């Protein structure tokens, strides 16, 4: 393809975008919205996955003891725990230490705890490490039966819940995304159809003077791709900005939430969105070209 | 140049437009195709530039078997043909110059070639001074001359014209005919469907009359032969 021809295609596509200003605007907006939502779901699913795997790598069982046990009784529980198959380490975490750790985690917001006064609602506990992840569940269930044990929690539960949540978000997101992608496809193909219709005379003459089908198609294809890319660009800019703000907010207030850092995470998602937008645009115009141009 | 061997065209609705046509149009010929409306003239023209496909028979145009062309080969057939319509088919939002240059742009000619050729053909039809005008600012005869300029700008071997003077008054029609004659003198084959009795009678060219989908007459230096 000659450079002059490429120039001609781009010029034609741009002038057509301008001529159908309102339709172009509607297309870009629809694509932008669809891809923005796609982007948000991607951010959400990937972050949930990330949280789940972070937690999974630190499975340990927290065994909370009932209040009012004597030292002897507590030691008894500890001994019984060590005898459970698979248990490799048992640490006692007293009420005070638990409180200190909690304060540390809250960081600047420890002030919140002042409301409690001298009272310490946190229980005495054991932290138990097990040699294999598969054994965690059975071990925790066994400990739960011990006298003096209030509850035995392990990360696995949270992990499983997170994975379940991820799965739900994924399915829900997929449905919405498919729906929105179809809407974007429809509006782009409609825009191109209008362009093709407005220029049917020109297309007829091009055919009579021997233009190849691809020569006739390219400007329309480019127009669709520009619409898709434009919409994606809007979505990407918006997503980048909001994720930046979100990260900032989370670091300030909920520091323990393990969010994926902005870069290169958002850059990768941006590439996905831009490619998707362009492909949707190309597909949309292809549909119209096949149905309305007979070339 | 154009060769038909037992060509028939039956449309999807069963209408027989041409049946069993055999004829030969050699290079450099000037042929009028005449006959009553609906007799098959337009179909004949459309077959030549592969707007329609022959139902039966063999049709060769400029060495290509038109009935067996792949869709991707059609543009290359048409690059050797110039087509002129009754309704000119110019683009109203392009200037005269751009309308003619358009035909060269779409086959990716170089900018220099385009400038040279467009000026040349505008000279040939006598409208170089109108290059910057829009079609809407020209008379019907002038618009048809622009359409002819566009048809010949890519140096076609055959110019096909479907009632090119159908919308024009007799005097203007003669201007148009003189241009076709000039093009023909330079060696280009001309096939023209027409209803213009005075033109056909005066020009004494080959006349092919199509009636009821068949060739009724094929005369060298023929006449129109119908009352209008």
From TrEMBL, chain A:
Gene Ontology cellular-component terms listed: plasma membrane
Presence of the UniProt keyword Transcription in the record: no
Protein localization: Cell inner membrane; Cell membrane
Membrane topology (UniProt): Multi-pass membrane protein
Pfam short name (any one): FtsX
Spans through the membrane: 21-46, 171-197, 218-239, 265-289
InterPro entries: ABC3_permease_C (IPR003838), FtsX (IPR004513), FtsX_ECD (IPR040690), FtsX_firmicutes-type (IPR058204), FtsX_proteobact-type (IPR047590)
Subcellular location, principal: membrane
Domain ABC3 transporter permease C-terminal: 175-292
Domain (FtsX extracellular): residue spans on this chain: 59-150
GO BP term, example: cell division
Keywords, ordered alphabetically: Cell cycle, Cell division, Cell inner membrane, Cell membrane, Membrane, Transmembrane, Transmembrane helix
Function: Part of the ABC transporter FtsEX involved in asymmetric cellular division facilitating the initiation of sporulation.
Assembly and interaction partners: Forms a membrane-associated complex with FtsE.
Family: Belongs to the ABC-4 integral membrane protein family. FtsX subfamily.
Name of the molecule in the record: Cell division protein FtsX
Species in which this protein is naturally found: Pelosinus fermentans JBW45
TrEMBL record, chain B:
SMART domains: AAA
Transmembrane segments: none
One GO cellular component term noted in the UniProt record for this chain: plasma membrane
Topology relative to the membrane: Peripheral membrane protein
GO MF annotation list: ATP binding; ATP hydrolysis activity; transmembrane transporter activity
Superkingdom classification of source: Bacteria
Biological process per Gene Ontology, one example term: cell division
Annotated PANTHER family: CELL DIVISION ATP-BINDING PROTEIN FTSE, IMPORT ATP-BINDING PROTEIN
Quaternary structure, from the entry: Homodimer. Forms a membrane-associated complex with FtsX.
Protein name, per record: Cell division ATP-binding protein FtsE
Gene: ftsE
